[in-house]
Design brief:
mainly alpha, 0% strand
């Protein structure tokens, strides 16, 4: 029946009359599309997850990973502070 299938966008091959260039001037591309593997047509949750993990493992950047961990740590500490969590359980008792 096709309830769960995504509808494909229509493609038109319109070329302006006075355009003297390569390709279509109306084609919209992201500037990082040629470096990504995860922007292919949808292939299910498992396929998307595997593609994202493969891209993450092959294109490691230590500064980005460190920055993500620092931001996540700050957000977790802020959340614990807001809910009134007692951080003294992590300190050595004297």
């Amino acid at each position: 029946m096709g309830l769960m299938k995504l509808k494909k966008n229509r493609k038109y091959n319109y070329k302006p009359r006075y355009y003297k260039g390569e390709g279509s001037p109306y084609e919209l591309k992201h500037k990082f599309d040629k470096y990504r593997k995860t922007i292919n047509p949808p292939k299910g949750i498992k396929g998307k997850l595997n593609a994202a993990l493969d891209e993450y493992q092959n294109d490691r950047d230590d500064t980005v990973n460190r920055r993500v961990f620092i931001i996540a740590g700050i957000l977790i500490l802020l959340f614990l502070f807001l809910i009134g969590f007692d951080l003294s359980i992590f300190l050595p008792q004297s």
